[in-house]
Amino acid sequence: MRVFDMSDVNNKSVLLYESIGIVFIIFLGATLHFTFEWSGSQPAVGIFSAVNESVWEHLKLAFWPALLYLLLESRPLSKSCNNFLAGKTLGAVLMIAIIPIIFYSYTSVTGTSIFTIDISSFVTSVVIGQLVSYKLLTYRKPPKVLDTIALLALVLLAACFAVFTFYAPQMPIFRDPITGRYGIP
Fold it and tell me: Could you tell me the pTM of the whole model?
């Protein structure tokens, strides 16, 4: 039984788009690590950039580039792919879930943050997110309700990243380990 609805040629082009997305998200995410500082700490830039060194702020480095890439590839892929919005949303959610899972797992053992592992976890999360997205983009069509759920999830996540930049909850994931502050300093 064949699970894929699209031709192998189209699957290859989707894989190419998702592979390009890996590079795009990693490079834009790495840049966003510094854009708040480069902007002179402009609050509007802080919505999309890391405003401190907390785990939460680093999740923005995967989420916003993934969302932008979703918008960029929506025109060429959304009509020809199954599950476009659901696939891209699940990919983004996995990216922002994997980073803290890896971080808190290894720091619970080592007791400290290790820069190379942190960078590797970011790259790993992007690769996994994009590959899962690819699999869903080329999988059979699910119920339409998944698109609605995906859109709501993206809007909710975007709102959380924006609001928590200014009003970060007093929880460890939002705490800057260097300054002890939360949100925009």
Answer: 0.89
